[in-house]
Amino acid sequence: MRVLVAEDEEVLAALVATGLRKAGFAVDTVHSGDEALAQLGLHAYDVVVLDRDLPRQHGDDVARELVATASTTRILMLTAAASTEDRVAGLDLGADDYLTKPFEFPELVSRVRALRRRSARPPLPPTLERHGVRLDTVRRTAHRDGRDLELSPKEFTVLQILLEADGAAVSAEELLERAWDAHADPFTAAVRVCMSKLRGKLGEPGLIRTLQGVGYVL
């Protein structure tokens, strides 16, 4: 899914973004609070990994703004301050979770995934199943009728979005917004190409139907 990393230490931000991409997320990075609010106003992020001590606009102010606007974006706050008082203060601001630096990267990935599942209404189970397709969003495995699908990270994400839709149509625009980062060109055939590869790996009988002018349905 789509994550914004707001971290003023550019090397750390790049490392976090690279690791989250390897875990299957579409990731954008910013290095200040005002940039974070600008990006959050442009795109519907599932989770923001928010450094508390951001320049120009403090991370606390970013969290307050998200809460005030009733944003559905979940907040994972990062900070070097490890005291109980700091954690309580961060959570009271509206953060959904709190992680102190330094942290173990697998824990960060796990917390981001958990927040993403909780952000759905109703909350999503870690394993999604429909029409013989079984997707384990924690282990990142996908099977159809017991056969390993060997999906790329992008194919896995697109299939996950279709499964989460539970039979409803998902437009190409929504897929591009949720599965690709801000550098994706909206006029490319990225979604169509990914969908073609995914259909090939799912095999027969075909499971993904195209509704002309509407989108895709599993």
Structural class: alpha/beta
Q: What is the beta-strand fraction?
A: 15-25%
- Strand arrangement in the largest pleated sheet: 2-1-3-4-5
Assembly type of the chains comes to: single chain
Number of domains: 2
Q: Fraction of residues in helices?
A: 40-55%
CATH homologous superfamily (4th level) name of the largest domain: Response regulator
Mean pLDDT, nearest integer? 89
Main β-sheet description: 5 strands, parallel
CATH fold node name of the largest domain: Rossmann fold
Briefly say what this structure is:
This protein has about 220 residues and is an alpha/beta fold. The chain has eight helices and eleven strands.
What does this structure look like?
With 218 residues, this protein is of the alpha/beta class. The chain has two domains: 2-119, Rossmann fold (3-Layer(aba) Sandwich); 127-217, Winged helix-like DNA-binding domain superfamily/Winged helix DNA-binding domain (Arc Repressor Mutant, subunit A). It is 42% helix and 21% strand. The protein has helices at 10-22, 33-42, 59-68, 84-93, 105-119, 153-164, 172-179, 190-202; strands at 2-6, 26-30, 47-51, 74-79, 97-100, 127-130, 133-136, 141-144, 147-148, 209-211, 215-217. Helix 4 links the parallel strand 4 (74-79) and strand 5. Helix 2 (33-42) runs parallel beside helix 3 and helix 6 packs across helix 8 (190-202). Residues 2-116 form the Response regulatory domain. GO terms for molecular function: phosphorelay response regulator activity; transcription cis-regulatory region binding. Residues 125-218 bind DNA.
